[in-house]
Amino acid sequence: MLRSLVGSEMCIRDSIFVHPWDMGWCDSKYWLPWLVGMPAETSLAICSVMCGGVLERLPELKVMFAHGGGGFPGTIQRVEWGYKTRPDLVAKDSTLSPVEQVRRIYVDSLTHDVKMLKHMIQLMGPNRIALGSDFPFPLGEMPSVAPTTGEVLTAYPGKMIEETDELDKDTKEQILYRTALDFLGRSQEDFDWN
Question: Whole-prediction pTM value?
């Protein structure tokens, strides 16, 4: 779909959320499509958008990627290295490096790990990270009972962000709602918060 948009002369001023789905290529044993396939597909999507020059051709387009950007926050320096050392392969369709573009994309906060979330904040800025829930899928932040241990998981969307002492109040508010408002082109005044 993005290929046809990029090829057109139209000016896009919309927001697109990218979530992986069909991981048929991934071995289904151990639930690997969900645990590894989706983060890999998300990283692949981000790299395709960046290396394909999508953000350069459509500067008004806002693109958000699920699962905290998947494997991308952990591999961006590898992609950047490839961009610099093999421009004949990686930089064919983009004049901006992945590091130059990383603060142009959005990701959701669904990382299940405060340390990874902090890494993403340092990499992208909190104004590029929005609350993610992965609802209605089973890896989202939602109440559950672990079938093997019986452990009651009392998660809900945003619980990790709200409960951590490692983020200040402003950063929490940015991720919990302000980034989503910006991504959708809305303001706080558009909603009744009572």
Answer: 0.89
